[in-house]
Amino acid sequence: MHFKYQNKMDKENIFKTELIGTHKSNKARVLQVTTPHGIFHTPSFMPVGTRAAVNCMTTTNLEESGAQIILGGNTYHMLCAPGLETIKLAGGMHKFMAWNKPMLIDSGGFQIFSLSKNSKICKIDETGGKFKHPNTGQVIHLTPESSIIAQKIMGADIVMAFDQCTADTEDKDFVNKAMTRTHRWLKQSLNLHLQNPNSEYGLKQAFFGIIQGGFYEELRKESAEFIVSLNTDGIAIGGESIGFDMDKTMQILQWIEPILPSNKVRYTMGVGLTPQNLLDVVQMGVDIFDCVAPTRNARHGSLYSGEIKKVNNWLKFESEFPNGKMNLNNASHANDMRPIMETCQCYTCKNFSRAYMRYLLKSESLLYYNLASIHNIQVMQDVCKKMRQFIIEN
Ligand SMILES: [Zn+2]
Fold first, then answer.
1. Contact 222, 213 (CB under 8 A)
2. DSSP 3-state assignment of 314?
3. In the CATH scheme, what architecture does the domain 16-291 have?
4. Cα 122 to Cα 207: distance, rounded to the nearest angstrom
5. Which residues have their alpha-adjacent CB atom under 5 A from ion ligand 1?
6. Please, are residues 151 and 160 in contact by the beta-carbon 8 Å criterion?
7. d(C-alpha 254, C-alpha 256), whole Å
8. How far is residue 310 from each of residues 23, 27, 314, 391, measured CA to CA in Å?
9. Is there a contact between 59 and 39 (Cβ–Cβ < 8 Å)?
10. Are 172 and 101 in contact (CB under 8 A)?
C-alpha cells in the first residue's frame, strides 16, 4: 500500500495531532501534525538554529534536505541579541530568518541551567534565572512568565515551558526540588499561555511541558504523570543526559513511555548525535528530536556515512566507520573519488568526492562548512523519511 501524505496548500490557524500509523511490533509511530505554518510528519529531526540560523545552512538548503520543522531559536540567546524589539519589528522569527514552515523554540530553561554552573553569570531561584547579558552586563530576569511573553513575540508554532534542568551528578533530593519547581513553573507558564494561546501575530501556538527527574525512576515517573495530567499540546523529555548518554536516555524512555498518552507529540530534547540514535528513540515511541551535533560534526570533518538497513523488523544505520561517522581528517580519504555516502542524494554527494571534501576541509575553505552541513542534515532527514515509510508499510 502506498502511503500518501495529506498535502494541503492552504494553511489553517490550528495545532492538531493525528495518529497515522504505528509499527506492529515496536512503539514507533507516524503522526501528522498541523500547525499554522503547515503540516509535518513524524518521526522528524529538527535542525537547530539556536541563534536564528542553522550554522552554515540557508533555509533553502534546509528545505532541500527534507527538513519539515526546525528549532528556530532559543529565548535566552534571542533576548541577548538581537533583542525582542528587533524580532517584533521583523514580524517574528519565521520572517526574521526566512523560514515559512513549522518551527519550535526553546524556553531558555536549559541555558539558565548551563550558565548557572558559574554563579557570577547566572543565579537560579524560585522566581527564575537572573543572568548577566554577555556584552552589556545588564541583568536579565528570565521567569516562567517572561519566557512565555518572549516566545509569543518570537512567534514559533511550538513553545516550550520554562524548566529547571539538573545535572546527572546531583543527588535525589536536589533533583526532586528542581523537578517540583519545574512543575510549579509549568503551571505558571501554562496559565499565562492559555490566557491567549496565540502568538503576537495572531497565530495559534502549541505549548509543550517538559519531564525532568534526572536519572531517578521514581522522579521520572512522577514528573511524567504530572505533565500528562495537564492540558499541554505535547510532551518533552529533558535533562542533561537526554541525547548525550544514550544508555540513560533509553532507560528513562522505558520508565516513562507507558505513562505517555498516544495522542500527543513526544519530544526528546537533544537526541541526534548519530543517525542510529534517532532509530533507537523512535522505536521507543518518540516523535521529534533536535541536536546541534550533525552540523557541528560536519564542521569538524566528521561526516555520516553508512546504509539504512532492515534488521529484526526495524532499521539500523550500518557503517564501516565508528558510530557511523567518517573522519575526513584521515589521510586515507585523500584520493578517494567516491561520494561521502553512495546512497545519499544531497547536493554534496551528487557533485563532490571524499577527496574534494577532504581537500576543502584541510585548506579551510569556507565552502566546506556549507557542503558538509548539507550532507549531515540530509542523512538525518533521510533516516526519518525511511522510518516513516517503514512504519506505514509495517
Ligand atoms: Zn550527502
1. yes
2. strand
3. Alpha-Beta Barrel (3.20)
4. 26
5. 344, 346, 348-349, 375
6. yes
7. 6
8. 14, 16, 6, 12
9. no
10. no
Report CA-CA distances (Å) from 89 to 13, 138, 156. 22, 22, 15
**Cell representation of residue 196:** 491567549
3-state secondary structure of 49: coil
Q: C-alpha cell of 318? A: 550500518
341: cell is 555516502
Which of these is catalytic: 106, 157, 163, 280?
106
Please indicate whether residue 287 is annotated as part of the active site: no
Tell me, in angstroms, the distance from the centre of ligand 1 to residue 344's CA: 4
Q: What gap in Å lies between CA 339 and CA 343, rounded to an integer?
A: 9
Beta strands in 144-259 (DSSP E): 158-160, 206-211, 234-237
Q: pLDDT (tens digit, 0 to 9) for every residue of the chain, 394 residues total?
A: 344 444 444 688 999 999 999 999 999 999 999 999 999 999 999 999 999 999 999 999 999 999 999 999 999 999 999 999 999 999 999 999 999 999 999 999 999 899 899 888 899 999 999 998 988 999 999 999 999 999 999 999 999 999 999 998 999 999 999 999 999 999 999 999 999 999 999 999 999 999 999 999 999 999 999 999 999 999 999 999 999 999 999 999 999 999 999 999 999 999 999 999 999 999 999 999 999 999 999 999 999 999 999 999 999 999 999 999 999 999 999 999 999 999 999 999 999 999 999 999 999 999 999 999 999 999 999 999 999 999 999 8
Ligand 1 geometric centre to CA of 348 (Å): 5
pTM, two decimals, is 0.96
For the chain, the domains span: 16-291
